[in-house]
Amino acid sequence: MEITGSSAFYAGLGAIQNGQNRVDQAASQIASNGVERAGASQSTSYQAERLRGVDRSQQQDLATSTVQLALGKHEVELGGKVAKASDEMLGRFIDTYA
Asked: Which domain of life, per UniProt (predicted)?
């Protein structure tokens, strides 16, 4: 029996890597958004104005990044489950415990 790179195990590992990349990008965007807001606030009156007139695009960007963060987390978890299931199935096909 030949094990190729297109097996479910490698698909699971690919999902883990893609999910990790998604989490990294989303976390970076969330962090940079927080830095921009912290740098922009200089006085309490300015902060009050910012709270009243929050830019909708920044809210949507933060929401999108938060959703991407959650999606990345689930992608990593599911990729791990796929890799584990594939590994268990391979162990059943080839009796490694004998």
From this structure: Bacteria
